[in-house]
Fold:
Amino acid sequence: MRTATVMGFVGAGGIGIELYQAISLNYFADAGAILILVFLTVALIDMFSEWARLKLAGISPDHA
Structure:
């Protein structure tokens, strides 16, 4: 998700191009909303990924 945002910002499409357009058109409320959604999505994916790695390794998430 992080990489897709950066790649889109530099011209590869996706959510990054939406962010770039919002900034370039001075739609700062839209740009802020996009940034918040990207941040929350990345945070949730990272938390789930950590939980899944610990679960697969047989380590209790409480003791990590």
Q: What stands out?
A: The chain is about 80% helix and 0% strand. The radius of gyration is 16 Å.
